[in-house]
Amino acid sequence: MRMHLAAWMAAIVFGLGGFSVAEAGIWATGHGDIDAHIHNGQLEVGLHFHSGAQTLGGQNIPEGHYEADEYQIFVPGTPINRPGGNNWDFAGSSGDQLWFLPDVSDPAKPFLGWGAEDLSLGIWSNITVTLLSVNSPVGGVFSVYALDSNDNPTFKLSSSGLAGAPTSFGLAGGGHEHYFVAFNRQGQFDVELKVSATQISSGQIFEGQGTFTFFSGSTPSGEVPEPASITVFAAFALGAAYRMKRRKMTSVS
């Protein structure tokens, strides 16, 4: 059984009494996407990091594609009160607080996008992101939404279970979108997503899925890394750059 890069990094430095799992494997700032691409004839769903993405420990994440479970996603900051009105019910109950990632870049948070850039327009169609399951704290709701000019939400995904709650949305071939991503509880959310796409030339439907872990408001460990462990981690992370899964995926034509 293969242990992924982030898990190896976390295991080694944590075993040495230094960096916590959070510092070793949690994406904390910079631009990255939940991304669909074709690799070896299969549709894969994972993370695609852009230049400047960093972990909670301040280490650069090499640009490229990674599997969904190679990094976890930190949702930091002070929560906001869920706005009133039943148009917000898909984000949680009235009186809930929301930890969120914004739809614009914030230097203190991950800038999470939804990418289908490697599924080229004219080659792929009907690209759909579907929410399969969410494992969360009791009462937890995961939601994805856009805001109009009057701050009214249009929900793309919601795990609320309410009637009419959306569980899928479309992406344009070659496209890239940013939406708000919100959580109404502090703690760990494991979000399982599926992406499907139709290859226009053959009519064949390709599907892939992945489970993405978010930590809203807090991480599994609040340990501060010790200087000796920072040195060990930095040396290990340098070598890890050469194990980056892929720098560029090639779409099936």
Write a structural description.
With 253 residues, the protein is mainly beta. The protein has one domain. The chain has three helices and 16 strands. The strands form two sheets. Strands 1, 2, 3, 4, 5, 8, 9, 12, 13, 15 and 16 form an eleven-stranded mixed sheet that branches. It has a five-stranded antiparallel sheet with strand order 6-7-14-10-11, with no helix packed on it. A hairpin with a 2-residue loop joins β1 (26-39) and β2 (42-49). The longest helix is centred in the last third of the chain and has 14 residues, at 227-240. The model is unreliable at 1-22 and 222-253 (pLDDT under 50).
Beta-strand portion reads 35-45%
Biggest sheet layout:
11 strands, mixed
The ordered H/E elements are HHEEEEEEEEEEEEEEEEH
* Helix content, binned percent: 10-25%
Rough outline? globular
Helix segment count?
A: 3
Total DSSP E strands: 16
Mean pLDDT, to the nearest integer, reads 84
Distance between the termini: 32 Å
Question: How much is the radius of gyration in Å?
Answer: 18 Å
Poorly predicted regions are 1-22, 222-253
Number of domains: 1
Class derived from helix and strand content: mainly beta
